[in-house]
Specification:
The structure is a homodimer of 504-residue chains. Chain A is an all-alpha fold. Chain A contains 20 helices and 3 strands.
Chain lengths: 504, 504
């Protein structure tokens, strides 16, 4: 027992050091996207890949493997809910993934991904899918190989999905997403047929950059983001970096002719940031101090961006403030017009610009296509046709070119297959959690309308953030809401919006 | 021979990786002083110390030791000026330093230094030397122990000096500095007696922060700092970070009621930055890609700050520009008044605020006192008295309290003993190099007056920057100027200023 205990301490010490090095890599990444001078790019790439090598070698070492195996046979794990048992269970998971894929394959995927990303950027610029197709085909081959190395129960897609959403299965997603798809297509059809149009031009007036930053920062602070333990900076493609306890950094971009980009972007990233700031610092570097999955992370960003940030009750408190911040743009605009503008729903071509409702159909389309591609039910050559067909079927519109169609996203060129569904999972989790929070907190709407976000944040901290990876996403949903993951809460939420604003 | 060659490649690969990790630590350090949110401090300290441990272990490993020893016996080093010979010579130097001091002692010095810094900060705040004295005594004991581990020819101070100024000796500095001291004391006395006072108030008018930044950035660009491979940011204690090829970062601070702080600060840091940007990227991570010494580094900053930036010819080009940038502050100010204001010489208490001439006496005083302390010719308890006596002797003034006397600098509390002389070495090197550059470039004054800094920069690149650690500082001085290090060029330069502005 004392010997086992020593092994556990040694294991934790080792993974903490690895966590520390990952957080160093995080600083390099944040710096690269916000500070790095152009000529420093090559050196930064070398720093990053050296650090990745050191991290991989340290974690996939025989030493770590032995410690995990030793722990698995030890008394310390008798209670499967003990900290030690949870950490060992999750480390086993990570370790197996790390050692099952040979480093030659990892390197080949990285190498091809670099080439594919540059080919993709060029192909998108020229809207010439043919130039990207061979790279996509090669990526798919390599990812199939990776899936075989990792192993799976039912289909290769499981192996890839599991990297981003541990424990989730393709079969389950197919069922849940199918139940979402048809009702969402119908709802969006009814909204379109209603003939009502949001006063979108309100958001497209002149919003000075400094005032936008000040307003977004104030909102992030009000919902609970701790700027003594974080920052807000500018970048091209916004993200949130968790650089370790006390250091969570949001980024955004400003468009002076569109209010929505920066504001809802900051609400979104601050949602991620609140999750990171809610992880327990004493667990840093161990699974208990880490986020569960991309989907759960996304649920936190979507909660604050959409469920809170676009709600009428939110603007009860914030509308007078936004009017003060932008008196010229908002002269004569009513609260009702403003909130309607923030809740526009209409089909569009580009995922990242899509609204809260249609967004999910963009994801479902990608989820279905990447499954078909990986499982060779669809050839890379036939992607554009399949894409456009599904766009027509789900959103009723067909892009004029592939730049606005199957070439719009970077993910596949990076080898990120199995990543897209986590976006819609985020929306589903968010809606299901939020329904429960409303039930638990009673007067949540009134709290939000009063600008009091502490009860909701405390609820998220207690039920989600503080657990780290103690539960899988599916377990957490069940534990919190008493039900399996379902599309109903999201459909109910969107249905309510449709009634409220479009009368359908 | 092929085997030896393989060992050399292995050695270079290893030290390059170490250099890469050091540059990662550099990013953490820069970030800490410009970006880090307050609550991230503790985590950053852990990241930094883990990285320091990894770097130390990698470099002081038996493997590196064997490779160096193997190379020393190899044919590859027959030509002592070959790249391989230079790298191995310098790596031996670094390796011996790294392994001779036991890590228990290194850790104890770090530990005590943390306590001593905080005791020093508090003692300075209260101007209560007694509170700091036991920490200083302990630091001195530990540094004596370190000197014994490192080894030395003549005196323990040699061992410490050698860390910052490789190859330099206490005996040589005592001779060179003595020849500077007496003449400088006399010169400053004559300046004081002249009764002429610079129109200092010109620099103390209102200089808006943004205009200061724009102007300083423009000047840094004009002298050749490449902002595609660097940045300029704000911090509390300005520094320059070399984060690797293509990434050199300057920092400064702005006082809206004093022009000199930011402007000459940026010229100073840009001088450091130009050295870093002039190191050959292909040598990164090896001694041939590193700066020679703190003194040589300082010579580059002093060249641009003082020899160029405070010269009359520099302002021939820049005075119209500065007048445009600050029309209100400079209304009615003549070029002559402006340059005189930038060349104030008068005794003061605080080193970091001292002018180009008196600064060196602040250094000489510290150099003499730290030698005496280390060699136990002076007891820590007697420091304040000795300090004040020398202030009186060299600068004719005595501080009213120790906060403005022996407690003003952080260096000793950090264990940095042997560091101070590199500041004045920088001034000496700078003046001696500059005299040679004037001889070599012929019309340097005219080039500077025309805002053409390319010939001077090219001269510095060719003669100094591009060599890395191929030559020691002393060798480089001899190679470039044909003479040993001497105080004459600096005294000549200061003498000329004294004649020009004070008529003495």
């Amino acid at each position: 027992m004392p010997h086992t205990h020593t092994s556990y301490l040694e294991l934790i010490k080792t993974v903490r050091e690895i966590g520390m090095l990952k957080s160093v890599a995080g600083v390099l990444n944040w710096d690269e996207h916000t500070q790095l001078p152009p000529k420093g790019t090559e050196h930064r790439a070398t720093q990053v890949s050296l650090l990745a090598k050191i991290i991989h070698e340290k974690f996939s070492s025989a030493h770590v493997g032995h410690l995990i195996t030793e722990m698995e046979a030890s008394d310390l794990l008798h209670d499967p809910q003990s900290d030690a048992a949870v950490n060992v269970r999750e480390l086993r998971r990570d370790y197996d993934r790390a050692v099952r894929v040979p480093s030659s394959l990892v390197q080949e995927i990285s190498r091809v991904a670099v080439l594919a990303q540059s080919a993709w950027a060029e192909a998108r610029r020229k809207s010439s899918y043919g130039d990207f197709q061979p790279f996509l085909a090669r990526i798919l081959d390599l990812k199939r190989e990776e899936a075989e190395c990792v192993g799976y129960r039912t289909c290769p897609y499981d192996a890839l999905l599991d990297e981003y959403e541990p424990g989730e299965t393709t079969a389950n997603l197919n069922v849940v997403f199918a139940s979402l798809r048809d009702k969402l297509v119908a709802l969006i059809g009814r909204i379109g047929a209603s003939g009502r149009k949001t006063p979108l031009d309100i958001l497209e007036r002149y919003y000075p950059r400094e005032a936008q930053e000040k307003f977004a920062r104030m909102a992030a602070m009000k919902i609970g983001f701790d700027f003594q333990a974080g920052r807000l900076d500018t970048t091209v493609h916004p993200f949130c970096s968790d650089l370790g306890p006390g250091d969570t950094r949001l980024t955004t971009r400003y468009d002076e002719n569109y209010f929505g980009d920066a504001f809802f972007g900051v609400m979104h990233e601050a949602g991620h940031g609140l999750y990171d700031q809610g992880l327990k610092p004493e667990y840093f570097g161990t699974p208990l101090g880490e986020a569960i999955s991309l989907g759960i992370h996304e649920s936190q960003s979507r909660t604050w961006e959409n469920l809170v940030g676009r709600s009428g009750v939110f603007w009860k408190h914030f509308f007078p403030l936004v009017k003060d911040a932008f008196p010229a743009a908002l002269a004569g605009v009513s609260e009702e017009q403003w909130v309607f503008a923030a809740n526009d729903i209409r089909p569009s071509f580009i995922r990242v610009e899509a609204d809260e409702a249609t967004y999910n159909l963009h994801i479902l389309l990608r989820f279905e296509l990447e499954q078909a591609l990986l499982h060779e039910d669809l050839q890379a050559a036939d992607l554009p046709g399949a894409w456009n067909e599904k766009m027509k079927q789900y959103l009723g519109i067909v892009p004029l070119d592939d730049a606005h169609g199957c070439l719009q996203d970077i993910h596949w060129s990076m080898g990120a297959i199995g990543y897209f569904p986590t976006y819609t999972l985020g929306n589903l989790y968010a809606a299901q959690f939020f329904e429960q929070a409303q039930a638990d907190l009673g007067d949540l709407d009134r709290q939000i309308a009063a600008g009091n976000f502490a009860p909701l944040l405390a609820w998220l901290r207690k039920n989600i953030h503080s657990h780290g990876r103690r539960y899988s996403a599916g377990q957490l949903v069940k534990k919190i809401t008493g039900k399996e993951l379902s599309s109903e809460p999201l459909l109910k939420h969107l249905g309510k919006k449709a009634r409220e604003w479009y009368g359908v």
